[in-house]
Amino acid sequence: MKKTAVVTGASSGIGEATARRLALEGFDVVAAARRRDRLDALAAEVPGVRPVTLDVTSAESVAELAASLDRCDVLVNNAGGAIGLEPVATGDAADWQRMYDINVLGSLRVTQALLPKLTASGDGVLVMLTSVAGLVSYEGGGGYNAAKHAQSSMTEVLRLELCGEPVRVVEIAPGMVHTEEFSLTRFRGDAERATKVYEGVPGPLSADDVADAIAWCVTRPWNVNIDRLVIRPRAQAAQHKIHRVTS
Ligand code: 8X3
Known about the structure:
This is SDR family oxidoreductase. This protein has helices at residues 13-24, 36-45, 59-67, 93-120, 142-161, 182-186, 191-197, 207-218, and strands at residues 4-8, 28-33, 49-53, 74-77, 124-129, 167-174, 228-231, 236-238, 241-242. It is an alpha/beta fold and 247 residues long. The chain has a single domain (4-242), classed as NAD(P)-binding Rossmann-like Domain (Rossmann fold, 3-Layer(aba) Sandwich), CATH 3.40.50.720. Strands 3-2-1-4-5-6-7 form a seven-stranded parallel β-sheet, with helices on both faces. The protein has a two-stranded antiparallel sheet with strand order 8-9. A hairpin with a 2-residue loop joins strand 8 (236-238) and strand 9.
Protein backbone atom coordinates (compact mmCIF):
# COMPACT_ATOMS: atom_id res chain seq x y z
CA MET A 1 0.00 0.00 0.00
CA LYS A 2 1.48 3.36 -1.04
CA LYS A 3 1.57 6.08 1.56
CA THR A 4 -0.29 9.33 0.98
CA ALA A 5 1.30 12.74 1.53
CA VAL A 6 -0.78 15.91 1.51
CA VAL A 7 1.05 19.13 0.67
CA THR A 8 -0.69 22.48 1.05
CA GLY A 9 0.36 25.53 -0.93
CA ALA A 10 1.53 23.11 -3.60
CA SER A 11 0.96 25.39 -6.59
CA SER A 12 4.41 27.01 -6.40
CA GLY A 13 7.66 27.36 -4.48
CA ILE A 14 8.47 25.04 -1.59
CA GLY A 15 5.05 23.35 -1.77
CA GLU A 16 5.35 22.48 -5.43
CA ALA A 17 8.95 21.29 -5.01
CA THR A 18 7.89 19.14 -2.04
CA ALA A 19 5.00 17.60 -3.98
CA ARG A 20 7.39 16.70 -6.80
CA ARG A 21 9.99 15.31 -4.43
CA LEU A 22 7.61 13.22 -2.33
CA ALA A 23 6.13 11.73 -5.52
CA LEU A 24 9.69 10.73 -6.49
CA GLU A 25 10.10 9.19 -3.03
CA GLY A 26 7.13 6.93 -3.82
CA PHE A 27 4.26 8.71 -2.06
CA ASP A 28 0.84 9.25 -3.54
CA VAL A 29 0.84 13.02 -3.30
CA VAL A 30 -2.24 15.17 -2.86
CA ALA A 31 -1.19 18.60 -4.10
CA ALA A 32 -3.54 21.14 -2.55
CA ALA A 33 -3.79 24.87 -3.25
CA ARG A 34 -6.15 27.54 -4.55
CA ARG A 35 -4.79 27.79 -8.09
CA ARG A 36 -6.17 24.72 -9.78
CA ASP A 37 -4.64 25.45 -13.19
CA ARG A 38 -1.15 25.19 -11.72
CA LEU A 39 -1.99 22.01 -9.82
CA ASP A 40 -3.43 20.43 -12.96
CA ALA A 41 -0.22 21.22 -14.86
CA LEU A 42 1.83 19.70 -12.02
CA ALA A 43 -0.32 16.57 -11.91
CA ALA A 44 -0.10 16.17 -15.70
CA GLU A 45 3.68 16.31 -15.46
CA VAL A 46 4.39 14.27 -12.33
CA PRO A 47 2.96 10.76 -11.96
CA GLY A 48 1.53 10.11 -8.52
CA VAL A 49 0.33 13.68 -7.95
CA ARG A 50 -3.40 14.33 -7.49
CA PRO A 51 -4.64 17.93 -7.52
CA VAL A 52 -7.17 19.15 -4.96
CA THR A 53 -8.45 22.72 -4.81
CA LEU A 54 -7.92 24.06 -1.30
CA ASP A 55 -8.28 27.38 0.46
CA VAL A 56 -6.81 26.95 3.95
CA THR A 57 -8.77 29.97 5.19
CA SER A 58 -12.06 28.18 4.51
CA ALA A 59 -13.30 25.51 6.93
CA GLU A 60 -15.57 24.10 4.18
CA SER A 61 -12.71 23.79 1.73
CA VAL A 62 -10.56 22.04 4.33
CA ALA A 63 -13.44 19.65 5.16
CA GLU A 64 -13.75 18.80 1.46
CA LEU A 65 -10.05 18.01 1.30
CA ALA A 66 -10.34 15.69 4.30
CA ALA A 67 -13.39 13.96 2.83
CA SER A 68 -11.54 13.30 -0.44
CA LEU A 69 -8.78 11.31 1.30
CA ASP A 70 -8.77 7.56 1.96
CA ARG A 71 -5.69 7.94 4.12
CA CYS A 72 -3.05 10.44 5.14
CA ASP A 73 0.42 9.40 6.27
CA VAL A 74 2.24 12.69 5.84
CA LEU A 75 0.87 16.22 6.04
CA VAL A 76 3.03 19.14 4.98
CA ASN A 77 1.46 22.38 6.21
CA ASN A 78 3.25 24.65 3.78
CA ALA A 79 0.61 27.22 2.78
CA GLY A 80 1.66 30.56 4.21
CA GLY A 81 3.49 33.74 3.44
CA ALA A 82 4.37 37.31 4.32
CA ILE A 83 2.50 40.46 3.39
CA GLY A 84 4.27 43.78 3.79
CA LEU A 85 7.47 44.88 5.54
CA GLU A 86 6.11 47.95 7.30
CA PRO A 87 7.17 48.86 10.83
CA VAL A 88 4.80 47.99 13.65
CA ALA A 89 3.98 51.71 13.99
CA THR A 90 2.39 51.85 10.55
CA GLY A 91 1.56 48.23 9.69
CA ASP A 92 -1.93 47.43 8.45
CA ALA A 93 -3.98 45.30 10.85
CA ALA A 94 -5.70 43.70 7.85
CA ASP A 95 -2.32 42.38 6.64
CA TRP A 96 -1.55 41.02 10.11
CA GLN A 97 -4.96 39.35 10.23
CA ARG A 98 -4.48 37.77 6.81
CA MET A 99 -1.03 36.45 7.75
CA TYR A 100 -2.41 34.99 10.97
CA ASP A 101 -5.32 33.44 9.09
CA ILE A 102 -3.14 31.72 6.49
CA ASN A 103 -0.02 30.77 8.47
CA VAL A 104 -1.53 29.94 11.85
CA LEU A 105 -5.24 29.22 11.49
CA GLY A 106 -4.76 27.70 8.03
CA SER A 107 -2.29 25.19 9.49
CA LEU A 108 -4.62 24.65 12.45
CA ARG A 109 -7.65 23.93 10.24
CA VAL A 110 -5.82 21.43 8.05
CA THR A 111 -4.11 19.80 11.05
CA GLN A 112 -7.38 19.36 12.92
CA ALA A 113 -9.10 17.92 9.85
CA LEU A 114 -6.36 15.41 9.00
CA LEU A 115 -5.11 14.44 12.44
CA PRO A 116 -7.50 11.45 12.75
CA LYS A 117 -6.14 10.06 9.47
CA LEU A 118 -2.51 10.72 10.45
CA THR A 119 -3.12 8.84 13.70
CA ALA A 120 -4.96 6.01 11.95
CA SER A 121 -1.97 5.53 9.61
CA GLY A 122 0.00 4.18 12.56
CA ASP A 123 3.04 6.32 11.68
CA GLY A 124 1.87 9.79 10.73
CA VAL A 125 4.25 12.66 10.11
CA LEU A 126 3.07 16.23 10.40
CA VAL A 127 5.42 18.83 8.97
CA MET A 128 5.00 22.51 9.76
CA LEU A 129 6.75 24.95 7.47
CA THR A 130 7.51 27.83 9.78
CA SER A 131 10.48 30.13 9.19
CA VAL A 132 13.50 31.57 10.93
CA ALA A 133 11.10 34.53 11.23
CA GLY A 134 9.34 32.40 13.84
CA LEU A 135 12.51 32.19 15.92
CA VAL A 136 14.14 35.60 15.47
CA SER A 137 12.40 38.97 15.07
CA TYR A 138 13.57 41.69 12.73
CA GLU A 139 12.61 45.26 11.82
CA GLY A 140 9.66 45.27 9.48
CA GLY A 141 8.91 41.65 10.31
CA GLY A 142 6.05 42.58 12.68
CA GLY A 143 3.01 40.69 11.48
CA TYR A 144 5.00 37.90 9.84
CA ASN A 145 7.21 37.41 12.91
CA ALA A 146 4.12 37.30 15.10
CA ALA A 147 2.37 34.77 12.86
CA LYS A 148 5.42 32.54 12.46
CA HIS A 149 6.20 32.65 16.19
CA ALA A 150 2.60 31.58 16.82
CA GLN A 151 2.82 28.77 14.28
CA SER A 152 6.13 27.61 15.75
CA SER A 153 4.66 27.66 19.25
CA MET A 154 1.59 25.74 18.07
CA THR A 155 3.93 23.11 16.62
CA GLU A 156 5.69 22.66 19.98
CA VAL A 157 2.38 22.39 21.80
CA LEU A 158 1.13 19.82 19.32
CA ARG A 159 4.24 17.67 19.79
CA LEU A 160 3.69 17.71 23.55
CA GLU A 161 0.00 16.92 23.24
CA LEU A 162 0.55 14.09 20.76
CA CYS A 163 3.28 12.41 22.81
CA GLY A 164 2.25 8.74 22.97
CA GLU A 165 0.27 8.90 19.72
CA PRO A 166 1.72 7.48 16.50
CA VAL A 167 2.30 10.92 14.97
CA ARG A 168 5.62 12.72 14.61
CA VAL A 169 5.64 16.52 14.60
CA VAL A 170 8.41 18.16 12.58
CA GLU A 171 9.12 21.86 12.23
CA ILE A 172 11.08 23.12 9.24
CA ALA A 173 12.32 26.68 9.69
CA PRO A 174 13.94 27.98 6.52
CA GLY A 175 15.94 31.17 6.18
CA MET A 176 16.50 32.83 2.83
CA VAL A 177 14.87 30.81 0.09
CA HIS A 178 14.68 32.28 -3.39
CA THR A 179 11.28 31.28 -4.71
CA GLU A 180 9.18 32.71 -7.49
CA GLU A 181 6.62 34.32 -5.20
CA PHE A 182 7.61 34.79 -1.54
CA SER A 183 9.20 38.24 -1.81
CA LEU A 184 6.90 39.30 -4.63
CA THR A 185 3.92 38.71 -2.33
CA ARG A 186 5.67 40.42 0.58
CA PHE A 187 6.27 43.51 -1.56
CA ARG A 188 2.81 43.43 -3.11
CA GLY A 189 4.02 42.67 -6.62
CA ASP A 190 6.98 45.08 -6.65
CA ALA A 191 9.40 42.90 -8.66
CA GLU A 192 12.33 45.30 -8.30
CA ARG A 193 12.19 45.25 -4.49
CA ALA A 194 11.67 41.50 -4.51
CA THR A 195 14.75 40.93 -6.68
CA LYS A 196 16.91 43.09 -4.40
CA VAL A 197 16.36 40.71 -1.47
CA TYR A 198 18.57 38.10 -3.16
CA GLU A 199 20.93 40.48 -4.98
CA GLY A 200 24.57 39.45 -4.72
CA VAL A 201 23.81 36.56 -2.34
CA PRO A 202 25.81 33.58 -3.49
CA GLY A 203 23.47 30.61 -3.36
CA PRO A 204 20.28 31.48 -1.56
CA LEU A 205 18.36 28.28 -0.86
CA SER A 206 16.08 26.99 -3.58
CA ALA A 207 12.66 25.43 -3.06
CA ASP A 208 14.30 22.10 -3.97
CA ASP A 209 16.81 22.49 -1.12
CA VAL A 210 13.96 22.79 1.37
CA ALA A 211 12.00 19.96 -0.26
CA ASP A 212 15.11 17.81 0.12
CA ALA A 213 15.18 18.54 3.87
CA ILE A 214 11.47 17.76 4.18
CA ALA A 215 11.88 14.50 2.29
CA TRP A 216 14.74 13.52 4.62
CA CYS A 217 12.69 14.28 7.74
CA VAL A 218 9.64 12.30 6.63
CA THR A 219 11.64 9.27 5.52
CA ARG A 220 13.44 8.70 8.85
CA PRO A 221 12.54 5.53 10.77
CA TRP A 222 9.23 5.65 12.69
CA ASN A 223 10.91 6.32 16.06
CA VAL A 224 13.00 9.27 14.87
CA ASN A 225 11.36 12.68 15.29
CA ILE A 226 13.26 15.64 13.85
CA ASP A 227 11.80 18.29 16.17
CA ARG A 228 13.05 21.36 14.35
CA LEU A 229 15.29 21.82 11.38
CA VAL A 230 16.69 25.31 10.78
CA ILE A 231 17.97 25.58 7.24
CA ARG A 232 19.73 28.60 5.80
CA PRO A 233 22.08 29.26 2.90
CA ARG A 234 25.79 29.33 3.77
CA ALA A 235 25.76 33.05 2.97
CA GLN A 236 23.24 33.77 5.74
CA ALA A 237 24.85 33.18 9.13
CA ALA A 238 22.01 34.95 10.93
CA GLN A 239 18.94 37.01 10.08
CA HIS A 240 20.98 40.22 9.78
CA LYS A 241 24.27 38.64 8.70
CA ILE A 242 24.06 38.07 4.97
CA HIS A 243 27.10 37.87 2.73
CA ARG A 244 26.62 39.71 -0.58
CA VAL A 245 29.04 39.93 -3.47
CA THR A 246 29.16 43.38 -5.03
CA SER A 247 30.43 43.71 -8.58
C1 8X3 B 1 11.15 33.74 5.12
C2 8X3 B 1 12.44 34.02 5.79
O1 8X3 B 1 14.03 35.82 6.62
O2 8X3 B 1 12.35 36.52 5.02
O3 8X3 B 1 10.31 32.93 5.86
O4 8X3 B 1 11.71 36.03 7.27
S1 8X3 B 1 12.61 35.66 6.18
